């Protein structure tokens, strides 16, 4: 189950060094996520220090692909 406030609020920036636990708890209701763990490890190895949580994000490229596939 997604967090109650999943699609609400302004974008929020997380300091990965301090807030990773909060992000994991936020999505913990969805169960274990090897993919989320891999993403964190990967971006950490690349030197990322922050993550941006955007609500109601619409990926224009993804929508473009869906439109092409639906034709």
Question: Would you kindly provide a written description of the structure presented here, covering whatever features stand out?
Answer:
This protein has helices at about 15-25, 35-45, 60-70, and strands at about 10-15, 50-55. With about 70 residues, the chain is mainly alpha-helical. It contains three helices and two strands. It has a two-stranded antiparallel ribbon with strand order 1-2.
Shape descriptor: globular
Helix content range of the residues, please? Answer: 40-55%
The SSE string, one letter per element, is EHHEH
Number of strands: 2
Q: Structural class of the helix and strand makeup?
A: mainly alpha
Descriptive tags:
71 residues; two-stranded antiparallel sheet; mainly alpha; 3 helices; 2 strands
Q: Mind sketching the topology for me?
A:
Elements: E1 12-15, H1 16-26, H2 34-45, E2 50-53, H3 60-70
Question: Concise description?
Answer:
The protein is mainly alpha-helical and 71 residues long. It has three helices and two strands; from the N terminus they run βααβα.
